Amino acid sequence: MAAMEPRIQYAKTADGVSIAFWTLGEGTPFVQMTNPPFSHIQLEWQISGFRRWYERLAEKRKLVRFDGRGTGLSDRNVADYSLDAHMLDLQAVVERLGVQTFVMFAPFHAAPIAIAYAIRHPEAVSQLLLWCPFARSRGRTQAFEALLNRDWELFTEAVAHAVSAWSTAEEGNRHAAYLRECVTAETGRAIYSALPEFDVAAVLSQVRTPTLILQRRQIPLDPGVEVAKGLASGIPDARLALLEGASIFPGVGDMEAVLSAIDEFLGESEKTAEALATAPSGLVTILFTDIEGSTRLTQRLGDAKAQEVLRTHNAIVRDALKACGGSEVKHTGDGIMASFPSASQALQCAVAIQHAVAAQADIPFRVRVGLNAGEPVAEEQDLFGTAVQLARRVCDHADPGQILVSDVVRQLAMGKGFLFSDHGDVELRGFEDPVRLYEVRWQEEA
Hints:
Elements: E1 9-12, E2 18-24, E3 29-32, H1 48-57, E4 62-66, H2 83-97, E5 102-107, H3 110-120, E6 125-131, H4 142-150, H5 152-163, H6 169-182, H7 185-194, E7 211-216, H8 224-234, E8 239-243, H9 255-278, E9 284-291, H10 294-301, H11 303-324, E10 327-331, E11 336-340, H12 343-359, E12 367-374, E13 377-379, E14 382-384, H13 386-397, E15 403-406, H14 407-412, E16 420-426, E17 435-440, H15 442-445
Parallel strand pairs: 3-4, 3-5, 5-6, 6-7, 7-8, 12-15
Antiparallel strand pairs: 1-2, 2-4, 9-11, 9-12, 10-11, 13-14, 15-17, 16-17
Helix pairs in contact: 2-3, 5-6, 10-11, 11-12
């Protein structure tokens, strides 16, 4: 049975534009960006492919959809369609809902908006999902420009039939009619004129939000797969999921494959909360890694090679986490924070990481590892509190290639076969009293 049509609400942007939005479901906020210039949150509910997609997303999360400025049920009389203006639309909606952190899903032309927003508001975007995206507007042919400027109706029909992959011509015609309801010809042309300025290619390396790029192989927009690969290599630690299909709409074609990729990616972050729930009395061991001299590494090797080092580090740490029962909490830019239900699992993981780093020879690098145990506060798929802060400081104090742990970790792991070397009481930034630290002798342990 289909869900009841969502109730339309409005939010006001900082520059005075009314933005239409609705929500569906409960749980973690999942904001689906509009793809300029086509959006109409009321009419798209009448299209089965859209509706099925929204209903499935809302089964596990709180879905948030909105019409961008100049489109759908939002204010149509707007002059500014810049990237910054579109970010104001998103900001207005999340502030109206009182959302602190959210997952962001951005298709096509919305991808540069989402990337820029995640860079400016890293604390707000927990995960970034980019659907068939690009970092800058694609080049246009003369035929595209001529059709766009001379015959809006024929242009919308060409768009609907060329890239939607509807099963029948009748469905394509209905979708072309929907596109014309989304936006006027004048506004559509104005938004298309602004799109070339949506260029974030030069700042991709600044993204610190966990990112998943989803791309269908057979979409007739060349070079879609190559663009997706370029984004995945440019955004630190981004993951790429190549899917089968020719429709630009995730709800048309093999929707379940798309949802599975999303659920798997988002589920990895949710493992942290599960680990806390199963840990006795909330006791958790926190592990931090940090790549030695990452800034100098970039200057010495260049951006491409430095990114290769980061990807190698991430793969090593994630393999070790999987083998040792750890849960990744977040990527910290130069390392990874993880949690474990037991100290011995965390120590096994730390030793495995150092052995794997030492064994790889493509681009030599070294990693610091620090551990502490305690009862952190779990909130918004993250961990906070003194236990986490101390683990971070222990990692900062470690030398490259070293594993340092607090005394509580050593005591929890006594009798488990690990070799410790006493480093004495150490003063750590932010802590009034000295902290007793121990080095794990991972080379001798081997």
